[in-house]
Structures are given as C-alpha cells and as structure tokens.
Amino acid sequence: MSQKDPLIIAMKGHPGTGKSTLASYLASSLSLPLIDKDDIRDSTLPVQEALGLASSASRLLNDLSYDAMWRIASTQLHHGLGAIIDSPLSRKTHLNRLESMATAYHARLIIVECRPSNEAVWRMRLQGRATGDNGGGWHKPSTWADIERLLEGYGGCTEYEIGDVPRIVVDTTEPGARIEDTASAVMEFIASHGGCS
To answer: Is residue 138 within 8 Å of residue 46, measured between CB atoms?
Structure first.
C-alpha cells in the first residue's frame, strides 16, 4: 500500500465568515488534526495584560501565535500527518510559509476560502460573538466597526495571487446554506485533488 503525501488544508477568510465552523466540521469528517491560530492567541491574554495595551504587544503576540501554529503544523507533517490550519491567511507571507512547509514535507496544499455574500448574516455572527464567547476570543472582532477597522488595517493585503495552489471559495452566508452541504462540496474538491492521506 502506498502512502499518499500528507494534506494541508488551509482555511482563508475574514473573521465571522464561517472558517472555524467549517474547519471543525472538516477535521471531524476527515479525521485530520485541527490547528487553530485562535486557540494559541487566546492563551496569550495573561501575557498581553502584563505587557499592556500597546498595539506593538498585540502584534508581537499575534505573530507569536502564527509561529507556534506553523511549528505545530510542521510537527504533524514531519510525522506524515496532514492537518487543517485555521487562520485568516490574510497575508501573502502566510501562504509563502505554507508553500515552504508543503515543499519541505512533500505535502499537498489546498486552500478553502470563505467569502461572505450576505453582509447581514456576517454582521449577525460577529455580534453573536460579543454575547456568546465565554471569555475566549477576546482578541477577535465582535462588531461590524471592529471588522471595518480590521479590513482598513489590512490595506488590501488579503487579496493576493495564490498561484497554482488549488483553492475552493465557499459562501457560508448564503440563504439556506448548511454546513453539511458546504463541507461536502469542499470534500469533493479535495477528492478531485488527490484526496486525504
């Protein structure tokens, strides 16, 4: 029996677009480890409080969270395991890092991008975070104003060329959209690009 190259499924999209819900569903369905940047960032609250509210501290801890995520993913790949990486993938440098890891570990890389078409649903999700997060996700946008500031801060850097990396774009905000249907479309796309290891 030949072993397939491990698969990296990289989620991409803004906060509140359904990335994490879809990533979690895919991880369970495909029996792949889920590496969520927010899990790491959530754990840095005591450090951020000790460093103060300076934006430089926030940026440093966010960068540290990405670095920890890449290291965990590298460990999985080193052992021949695929992984689902849940992050906004907001910068080209993040994609470059994934491509380097894929090359180093002979892994296949697929991007699953969540792009919302229904702004009302997107807003509702964000506002739901403010009331239902139970203390986690303190660093995530929870209002539409937060998202507008975030997008302005990105300055368009989230729109970059991905080259030859296979990508599927899904919309979890469409009327009647069900996670099962979206995940099924993603799994069909993955199957058409070599399936899971």
So the answer is: no
Task: Give the amino acid at 160.
Answer: Y
Burial of 68 (0-12, 13-18, 19+ CB in 10 A): middle
- Tell me which residue of 145, 161, 147 sits closest to 111, measured CA to CA: 161
Q: What pTM did the predictor assign?
A: 0.86
- For helices 119-132 and 144-154, the axis angle rounded to 10 degrees is 110
**Strand-pair category, 108-114 with 7-12:** parallel
Question: How does DSSP assign the chain, residue by residue?
Answer: -PPPPPEEEEEE--TTSSHHHHHHHHHHHHT--EEEHHHHHHTTHHHHHHH-S-HHHHHHHHHHHHHHHHHHHHHHHHTT--EEEES---SHHHHHHHHHHHHHTT-EEEEEEE--S-HHHHHHHHHHHHHH-TTTTTTS--SHHHHHHHHHHHTTTT----TT--EEEE-TTSTT--HHHHHHHHHHHHHHTT---
Question: Per residue in 71-112, pLDDT tens?
Answer: 999 999 999 999 999 999 988 898 999 999 999 999 999 999
Give, to the nearest 10 degrees, the angle between helix 19-30 and helix 179-192: 60
